[in-house]
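User: Second chain of the day. Same drill as before.
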Amino acid sequence: MADAELALLLARIQFAFTVSFHFIFPAFSIGLASFLAVLEGLWLKTKNDVYLRLFKYWLKIFAITFAMGVVSGIVMSYQFGTNWSVFSDRAGPIIGPLMAYEVLTAFFLEAGFLGVMLFGMDKVGKKLHFAATLMVAIGTVISAFWILSVNSWMQTPVGYATNDVGQYVLDGSWWDVVFTPSFPYRLVHTVIAAYLTTALVVGGVAAWHMLKGRDFPAVKKMFSMAMWMAALVAPVQIFAGDLHGLNTLEHQPMKVAAMEGHFESYERAAPLILFGIPDSEAEEVRYQIAIPGLGSLILKHDINAPLDGLDTVAREDRPPVGIVFWSFRIMVGLGFLMFALGLWSLWARWRKTLYDSRWLHRFALVMAPSGFVAVIAGWITTEVGRQPWVIHEVMRTSEAVSDIAAPAVAGSLIAFVVVYFFVFGAGTLYLLKLMSHAPAPGESDVADAPIRSAGITPASGLEKDGIDPRPDKEEGAA
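Assistant: Same format as last time:
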């Protein structure tokens, strides 16, 4: 392998490594910020201390997650200048303003209200503090809006022209650049994934404590809320994913062909290949298990519809099939397991065994990290499926890399791996330590002073709602 090819490969691995670490934190903080807003809103409405206890419990976890997300995101911006300077120069007139909008709107909104949200409950009014929490939650979604707008333009570029020096510049309206054909589907699919990821973590933490016999009212409440979220949102995510797939088929058919393992085109009744081992050299999926006609039915809603395969483009224009094929199946498989968890929780709720079903709690605990795995698998499907293009059918990845030496990239990659696993590994362990402590009544970190300043005692809200605040009693109406 030539030095330039090795440098390109290492640069891609480095960016994939850093963005994967970064992605898992916003995937959690976006949903968690909204969960905190819901908890505080319910506390203000009902004066039930269970909601306040949960708010303060998850607020600490959110603060650390948010901080790690910011730190891990800063590193990626430097790589645009060091490893991908050609891409930055040529695409900068388009993606630069979009990234700036993300800072000017979302990041400033989050940073401006984060301090009030974290430390201001006993210093500002209840309504103002709730407004700050809402602003942080809205800011996380706005941040996702702009970042996904940039990514969507790279996936389905429109509204641009090439100037005399080879740069991509605006040609028309910024609305076309921001709202590309794939953007609405990508935004909905990603934000729902963040909410599901948070629900699964919250449900898993609650399940862990109930399996340990810590079935406090707050633990039961967060398990109930998480299971409602899984039951209601998982089917919506499957529907949104189907629409996103149909949009991808329209604009990036070779990505879908790689996802489905279709090396050859089908004049009619394309099969759905469930499993197999893709062989790009032989251009076939070995040992495949397939259902005839189902591929056409799912992708074109017509069992006899034709489908183009990878044989319609040159080999050098095809994405790596093996990676895309399996990452897509991991994402879809976990999605249906989330749907199954939601259905199981509805069944247990109907039978009034939601807090007693040990097997449901075990399943929820096992599924706790599945949201992170699914979002990473989905990101791999999206980004690797776009290859060999960094801007789809406009600029190849090999054209975007800086003129750098492979040893330099290798050195920085090794440094990133060591530092990331040390720093973010320690942060993750601390998050798990926080989650291992149940939000039990009477703990000192419940912050009695802010509660009393709101006009209630730590037990009054529980007793008012028919819940015994003693940890050895089961939850009542909740």
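Residues 20-235+351-464 form one domain.

User: Great, on to the next one.
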